[in-house]
Automatic annotation (TrEMBL):
This is Sodium:solute symporter. Coiled coil: none annotated. Its main location: membrane. Signal peptide: none annotated.
Amino acid sequence: MLLFFISLYLLLNIAVGAWAARRVHSAQDFVLAGRRLPLALAASVTFATWFGSETIMGAPAKFVEGGIPAVIEEPFGAALCLFLVGLLVARPLYRLNLTTFSDYFRIRFGRSAELLSALLVIPSYFSWIAAQFIAIGIVLKVVTGIDQAYGVIISAAIVMVYTLLGGMWSISVTDFLHNAVIVVALVIVAVPLWQELGGWEAIQQRTAGKPQFWRFAPEWSFHGVVEYVAAWITIGLGSMPQQDVFQRVMSAKSESVAVRSSFIASGLYLTVAMIPLFIGLAAQFLHPDLPMATDQDRQLLIPNMVLQHGNLALQILFFGAVTSAILSVSSGAILAPAAVFGENVVKFLKPDLSDKSLLLTIRLAVVVITASCVWMSLARDVSIFDLVGESSAFSLVSLFVPLLAGIYWRRATLMGCLASMAGGLLVWVVCLLLDTQTLPPMIWGLLASITAMLVGSLVTNVMSLRDVRR
């Protein structure tokens, strides 16, 4: 019975995609929903950017072990990112009427910056998408007993089909429905657990043996502060220059709606994302029989609790909510690199590409990217939480500095932009290989990106000044 309802829910997503396909007449309709989303849909689709496997399964697994210090990156860093997008990025980028994030680099710096940014944006999504596929494969394995690999393939095919059909239109409508299911399901699961635990005082008593569990401030040592800052900026800054955030915010019907939807989504994320953390902690306290030995066991903590201790109605609602969340994130994450590939790589090489051919190219890219991420999710044995962090770190060291410098520093130049992208990424990769301990590789990469932007831009400005004087 449970499998029947989950299957029905998945098929409903395809039906929504088929309905939304009727509204797709151009590449911009497919990528940005025609820039016509009202505030409710815009806020909903922006909130759903990351509310997926890492929030419902990955973060609770970290939280039950390490408390607040272990989840600064997600959900707190994610909420910070959405707030900063509304504060710093949404308004200036919306005015430019862009289709993709890399379009900005073409307008601000030139075509070579557009191409390099696109080549960096595309691979940064593979870890993110793979994390979602792994999560839904795990869920289907728990619910049905089928092999995780088959669960990954089936779910990826469903996400691919409804993304192919309606693009951002289908994502927007399904996200709105998904979010309603998610919030209702999480509240229904959480309220009885809160009552059974005995409220906040009982939770504090049960965690009294872990004095650092509720610590929000950093550990006041060099390494403690560095790790704390790194946790905040991995998603908090690293996800600002990503296409999935861009396309969701830019789908709003006006500049003010784009800004307000980012702020609303940030607030929703910070509040709703606390519920899975509590549910995971309550499951650990109330059901010590649940397996907790490995990281994968902890990722399955909430699904196992619902499956073993919840009634059928609760199981249908909860697993529908989990499926909802993961589908929401997966669809937008697949569309993002596909749009960049079509708009900023293929169109870069073929400037006279028709809109119809561009739309076909993006849809073909959706298929290829989905297949690549399925392979990646089956080939790598990495936790969901780590895969998400890896994706954000990639864009932090290569794209964050050029984005902010381009908007707010008039002296930023093409040379500085290219040096910042390439230098930050190169230093990050080298530090990963060397396993640097003094500072995390991500911090070294970010510092290199900042330095390269400053040096490259200042050198260009000095050379231009000399040419003028001659």
